[in-house]
Design brief:
Length: about 400
């Protein structure tokens, strides 16, 4: 099936194959071609060019006229928890009444609530619920996504979640990578015995996950009231023996030293960073670890926004992701993430686009194939309705400007 999109106002995401992330000032470059066409063969980018060089005699099964819309690589959402059971809107109501995230967690709500629900839900039902969310985010332009476990909190249920993620990966046309997050919270039956829970993660969960090759990455919720930097270090070390690279929740509720441990363990990404100290920017600069900001979480959970502007000004490669989960932000809308990145973190539109495409892909080790438009690759494509400029995209933050997606 050969599809050609013509009359594209601007085609974004054109980067050489050697370019695997964009740092600092490079995040502001558009990497674009005006007045363009693009040909896809079964979703794979075959060729593109200026309308002046449009091939005339070639057979196409479909010619799509963009009428001056933009074309860009699909979004790369490097941090989600979309495999979960049910929802937690009643907890959210408590938060509306004034309870903090930590207070909800202390009451036995939060993650433990989702773990109880997940325990009662069959693998098939969990798959059905998660697949609905996957289709929802695909409709909103996501073409590559990371999904975490972490609502099982015992070996059997963590494996159940990871098998669901694997089934999603097999069934969906978009790239799905998986992360083992057994250390998302201490399971109810281990409360007061956190050390033993960490041992369970290391001695039972990790080997089981590794033997079925169920996870590409490992994550830990390293934060005040959850896991300490020392515990995180132990778990990341153990996971490294199985080839699982770290992508870690740090500095969401407080800065407790998690970032240093992650950098030492060569984390692919450190995520959240709502309460990161600006003093930690040089340490990130000296590493290959990608700071991943989740502005939807700041919005929904009334937390500070990450220091996106300062990070880019310091030369870092910043990624933005949705964190779609039932507690801190039940949304996987990467268009809204872009808008928040601009409005609340002062990223410019090009920077926001690069943060949710190539740098998001880099935060999943997928940027050689995703997050850019390159011949021979299948990154997923977003075509917009006719819009005046790229800035309109994050500016018109509730307008449904996506005309069509190609996966
Ligand atoms: O990324 N911070 C830890 N985990 C999730 C929240 C999970 C939940 O509340 O269910 C997050 O915000
Ligand atoms: Fe998260």
């Amino acid at each position: 099936m050969r599809t050609r999109i013509i009359n594209i106002k601007t085609l974004y995401g054109l980067r050489p194959s050697s370019c695997l992330r964009l740092c600092g000032a490079d995040m502001g470059k558009p990497y674009s071609l005006d007045n363009a066409w693009l040909t896809l063969r079964n979703g794979t980018v075959e060729d593109y060019g200026n309308m002046d060089t449009l091939p005339v005699d070639e057979h196409c099964d479909e010619v799509v006229d963009a009428h001056g819309g933009l074309v860009m690589p699909a979004f790369c959402d490097s941090h989600t928890h979309i495999v979960y059971a049910g929802s937690r809107e009643h907890e959210w109501e408590d938060k509306v009444r004034g309870l903090s995230y930590e207070e909800v967690a202390k009451r036995g709500g939060g993650i433990l609530n989702s773990a109880d629900l997940l325990h009662q839900t069959s693998e098939y039902e969990l798959y059905e619920q998660a697949m609905e969310r996957l289709h929802e985010i695909m409709d909103k332009g996501t073409g590559c996504v990371e999904i975490k476990s972490g609502y099982g909190l015992n070996t059997e249920d963590e494996l159940k979640m990871l098998r669901v993620i694997r089934r999603i990966a097999e069934a969906s046309p978009i790239r799905v990578v998986s992360t083992f997050l057994g250390a998302h919270a201490v399971a109810r039956n281990y409360l007061g015995r956190q050390n033993e829970y960490v041992d369970l993660v290391i001695n039972e969960m990790l080997p089981a996950v590794a033997s079925e090759k169920l996870a590409d990455f490992v994550d830990v919720f390293c934060d005040k009231g959850f896991f300490t930097p020392e515990e995180t270090d132990r778990m990341l070390n153990a996971a490294a023996k199985y080839g699982m690279k770290p992508k870690v929740h740090v500095d969401e509720l407080a800065s407790v030293g998690g970032m240093q441990v992650c950098i030492k363990n060569k984390a692919v990404s450190v995520d959240h960073l709502e309460n990161m100290s600006a003093n930690d920017i040089p340490a990130l600069k000296a590493s290959d670890t990608i700071p991943t900001l989740l502005p939807g979480t700041s919005f929904f959970s009334n937390m500070p926004y990450g220091k996106g502007r300062a990070m880019i000004d310091a030369g870092l490669a910043v990624a933005m992701a949705s964190d779609y989960n039932p507690g801190s932000t039940p949304s996987g809308d990467m268009r809204f993430v872009m808008s928040l990145a601009c409005m609340k973190m002062r990223l410019l539109p090009e920077e926001a686009l690069n943060a949710v495409t190539i740098n998001g892909a880099a935060a999943m080790c997928q940027s050689s194939t995703h997050g850019s438009i390159r011949r021979g690759e299948r990154p997923g494509i977003i075509m917009t309705k006719p819009v005046p400029s790229l800035a309109f995209v994050p500016y018109a933050y509730t307008t449904p400007w996506i005309a069509r997606t190609f996966f």
